[in-house]
Amino acid sequence: MADEIVLKTGRGDYLLKLAAPPELSGDALILPLVMEHRAGLERVGLICRVALQKADAPKSHCSFGELLEPDSQADRELLKRIAAGFEREFEQVREAALRSIRAERKPLQINVEGFNPAAFTF
Questions:
Q1: Which residues lie closer than 8 Å to 29 by C-beta, 6 or more apart?
Q2: Domain interval for residue 106
Q3: Cα 6 to Cα 83: distance, rounded to the nearest angstrom
Q4: In the structure, what pLDDT confidence band is assigned to residue 5 with cuts at 50, 70 and 90?
Q5: 45 CB contacts (<8 Å, ≥6 apart)?
Q6: What is the dihedral of CA 97, 101, 45, 87, to 10 degrees?
Q7: What is the 3-state secondary structure (H, E, C) of 66-84?
Q8: What number is the average pLDDT over the span 32-60?
């Protein structure tokens, strides 16, 4: 992604960006994400699974295929919505992601219903 999304947190600015291209898996979009402290102090990876429902499509009325295009505007808009939820729940998301890597040796998966970042489930 050309630009990163900035998360304003109590720990300083973190950059949210795609770690790899998004993938379609059944009825969901899989986003491998990384939150990186702007000063390089910490890097946290996680997977965001967005359940796709045509009624919940982004306001740009893009096709789901557009979300898979590198550096697409739809891709950026979706990340902005997810970032809003991450900012609100930053400490919880960060701790859960770090715990998952340490204890389970796999990235945390956050499930988002439709395009509503308020509907996070771990």
A1: 22, 23, 49, 50, 52, 64, 67, 68, 78
A2: 5-121
A3: 8
A4: very high
A5: 19, 32, 33, 34, 35, 97, 101, 107
A6: 10
A7: HHCCCCCHHHHHHHHHHHH
A8: 81
- Give me the residue label for tokens 């919940």: 56
Domains identified in the chain, total number:
1
Name the residue among 81, 33, 31, 76 with its Cα closest to residue 56: 81
pLDDT the model gives residue 116: 54
Tokens encoding 113: 């219903």
- Contact assessment for residue 18 and residue 35, using Cβ atoms and an 8 Å cutoff: no
Which residues, including other chains, have CB under 8 Å from residue 46's CB and lie 6 or more apart? 33, 34, 35, 93, 97, 100, 107, 108, 109, 110
The amino acid at 3: D
